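Hi P.,

Sorry for the delay on this. The queue was packed all week, but I finally got your sequence through. Input first:
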Amino acid sequence: MRKNKLYSELTELEKQVADSYMKSELKNLDFKHPIRLLFHYAWEDYKADKFTFDGATFSKKWHTATSFEIAALVHDWRNSMGFVGYAVDREMFDVMITLNYGLPYIIQRYILTRFTFLNIIRHRIKGTFKGSKLTNLYKL
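Then the structure:
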């Protein structure tokens, strides 16, 4: 899959694969778990073409069959709204830990988030920076 695609640009197969893989990540969570709600909001906004999905930028994919994963989707969703920063990165790590992503993936992404300040600068220049102080951040 090419990165930075709107949902409407995906093939039917890509849509089905993305949906099934991400829903499979939720299989061990309680029905009322807050990550389910985060996923729902992010996925519905993506399906409404409100943002493009980039996946896990500059790092290895969690699934071999698709770039779609909940941690990257939620992170891209926050980023698309201008919420960028270390609190948003921490949310991504909390999601990754809760959904049992492997330690090598978490470490690799932790190292890459040391460059979040560049993304903050980019959003400030574009005039889209809203910060990282969200009231509905998921926390372990």
